[in-house]
Amino acid sequence: MTQEKIASHRMQITDNLEKLLAILPETILTQVNSHSQKDNLIEIVMDLGRLPEARFHNEVTYLGESTITKEDIQHCVERVGMFGADNRAGIERTLHRISAIRNRAGEIIGLTCRIGRAVFGTIVMIRDLVETGQSILLLGRPGVGKTTALREIARVLADDLNKRVVIIDTSNEIAGDGDIPHPAIGRARRMQVARPELQHQVMIEAVENHMPEVIVIDEISTELEALAARTIAERGVQLVGTAHGNSLANLVKNPTLSDLVGGVQAVTLGDDEARRRRSQKTVLERKAPPTFAIAVEMLERQRWVVHEDTAETIDTLLRGIEPATQIRTVNDNGEVSVIHEEAQLDANTLVNRSMTPSLGPGGWRASGKMNPVASFGSKRKKKQNPQFEQMLESSWQTQEPHSNKLRTPGPNGEDWPVYIYPYGIGRSQLEQVIGVLDLPIMLTKDLDGADAVIALRSQIKHHSRLRQLAKNHHLPIHAVKSNTIPQITRVLRQLLNLDDPNVPEATDMRLFTKAGNDDEIEALEEARLAVEQIVIPQGQPVELLPRSAKVRKMQHELVEHYRLQSDSFGEEPNRRLRIYPA
Predict the structure, then answer these.
(1) In which band, very low, low, confident or very high, does the pLDDT at 296 lie, cut at 50, 70 and 90?
(2) Is the pTM of this model over 0.85?
(3) Domain ranges across the chain
(4) Across 402-543, where does the E strand assignment appear?
(5) Cis peptide leading into 573, omega within 30 of 0?
(6) Would you call 412 exposed, middle or buried from its count of C-beta atoms within 10 A (0-12, 13-18, 19+)?
């Protein structure tokens, strides 16, 4: 651990508190003005039928002994700006925020009056990073000061570094209420957003219409906003944004926002690489370069953790290692201290790695000695080969006398992995499902060492020898209706007792495409969104865009995964899919 000090700078605070207090009823105003901690006030809470509260950093105080009436709330509402779709309003030329709570009839029955302060000097801890021109993401719990820091960064970039800065101000928190922005943002320009759900569109509009060098965005919270942020970053524009979440580790686990730090994907390693890494065959890796090159975790107002290389930090986290941290703090005199802590292995990873020599991949499949057997399952092959039954019987006699099953306990005490003997099912499809979903299943051609048989339903029906052999070895047979990815996925999950019809399965597009090119992924994503956003919730059929026969087949399989029906209609090249509700 090393420590160093960098430049100091005193903080200056401007809050226009008197403008917020002017909207309050006289009885509450008197109580606030007489309070000894008035300058440290955070917010005033007014709920119908309750005593008004004043909230400070370390305490909450009741303001008087009279409960709030409808007249008190109306008195405040008449003196603030218009409430938007997000139930927020402000006071013109200030940074204060008034948030409303409504009843079912739409009437306001509660107000949260938050004091907005322009704090100059908050970013002294990361000013060196701001000046690099790289995109910066600020993380932290609500109230830790993310928006305050964002406002200061916008001013520094616009005034001190003479950059063209555009602020996407969805709730008017950064630049204040009204048409004229607050002086705290300096020369930076502000674009307001009519409705919160349109924020991603305004982000793109800002880049296309106003040629900014820097885009400042508060509260990135949806998948569309994350995609818009990536588009902006790829155009060479510096991004400075915030997102809710205490740490990068939390952000990685958030499927909506993980793209901000590059996204995560499961990768299947070869046997040699898995042994070299001393890990499982399926591991998590970063999918793409992070949208934000630098990430800052705001633990407290004056204590931040800085990750100067987000990509390296994410890669380290995915390997189960606690990344090296750079903790920056500032004291009351504005002096900044930097503490460097080295990376450390996570405790669970240390345990797992110490056990790896005895629990690593083993057996015939891991050593490369297990070769795929040809499928004798089709009727056509049986007709072409008169010795089919003899070949079938001999294929069950392949022994592995020296193989030792590798077993670890599952979540309910089961023995994992499960060794299955596939019959009449495409091995590549089985391995694709097992690899993508990271299922604890091993394929084997040793009947004595198998735990179960998985076969096409038609093969089980027409071949009594198959049923007899399984019976002699006391093995259950799991039937697959058809040789498709959804059917194979469903049977394998049932075999592991993972399939719950009341719980929707996570859909992984890699199950339905082998090439994984952009056109196929786009077509599958179109089908997924149609099912999840229209067909299932609204019960309406949906027609998709025209696609090739190959892509339509993938879409059909994806729809089957949701237990829905679909068909193709129209003439080529306009033939397309129609999806029906259950």
Answers:
(1) very high
(2) no
(3) 11-116, 121-351, 362-495, 509-580
(4) 408-409, 415-416, 418-423, 441-443, 452-456, 477-480, 542-543
(5) yes
(6) exposed
Q: What is the pLDDT of residues 242-268, one digit of tens each?
A: 987 788 888 888 888 888 999 888 888
Instruction: Report residue 454 as tokens.
Output: 């998985």
Task: Give buried/exposed letters for 60-98 (b at 16+ CB in 10 A, else e).
Answer: eeebeeeebeeebbebbeeebeebbeeebbbbebbbbbb
Q: How far is CA 547 from CA 234, 526, 533, 577, in A?
A: 29, 11, 21, 8
pLDDT digits (tens, 9 = 90+) for 195-214: 888 999 999 999 999 999 99
Class of domain 121-351: alpha beta
User: Percent of the chain beyond pLDDT 90?
Assistant: 29
Q: Which structure tokens are listed for 404?
A: 């030792």
Question: Would you give the distance in Å from CA 228 to the centre of its chain?
Answer: 15
Task: Please give the angle made by the CA atoms of 298, 171 and 52, to the nearest 5 degrees.
Answer: 80
Measuring CA to CA, how many Å separate 117 from each of 90, 154, 176, 213?
13, 15, 10, 26
Q: Are 288 and 262 in contact (CB under 8 A)?
A: yes
Read off the tokens for 83.
């409430």
Q: Which CATH class is domain 11-116?
A: alpha beta
Q: What is the pLDDT of residues 117-167, one digit of tens each?
A: 887 777 888 889 999 999 999 999 887 888 889 999 999 999 999 999 999
Token pair of 89 as six digits: 């309003």
Tally: H helices and E strands in the chain: 21, 31
Strands (E), 91-155: 97-102, 108-114, 118-120, 136-140
**pLDDT digit string, tens, across residues 9-52:** 445 566 688 888 999 999 999 999 888 888 889 899 999 999 99
Alpha helices in 117-222 (DSSP H): 127-130, 146-155, 199-210
Distance of CA 301 to the CA centre of its chain: 26
Long-range Cβ pairs for the range 357-362 (8 Å, 24+)? 359/406, 359/408, 360/274, 360/275, 360/278, 361/271, 361/274, 361/275, 361/280, 361/281, 361/406, 362/404, 362/406
Distance CA 98, CA 79 (A): 11
Instruction: Tell me if the domain spanning 509-580 has CATH number 3.20.20.450.
Output: no
Q: Which of 26, 218, 244, 245 is closest to 116 using CA atoms? A: 218
60: tokens are 């909450």
Residue pLDDT, tens place only, 472-524: 888 888 888 777 777 888 888 888 877 655 444 545 555 566 555 677 888 88
**DSSP letter string over 536-580?**
HHH---EE-----HHHHHHHHHHHHHTT-EEEEES-TTS-EEEEE
Nearby residues of 58 by Cβ (< 8 Å), 6 or more positions away:
none
Extract the tokens encoding 444: 């084997």
Backbone angles phi, psi at 366, to 5 degrees: -70, -30
Domain 362-495 is of which CATH architecture? 3-Layer(aba) Sandwich (3.40)
- Same CATH fold, 362-495 and 121-351? yes
Type and span of the H or E element at 297: strand 294-300
User: Which stretch of DSSP H or E encloses residue 46?
Assistant: strand 43-47
Please state the three-class secondary structure of 257-268 as a single string.
Answer: CHHHHCCEEEEE
Q: Are 544 and 558 in contact (CB under 8 A)?
A: no
Contact 45, 111 (CB under 8 A): yes
CA gap 125, 8 in Å, rounded: 9
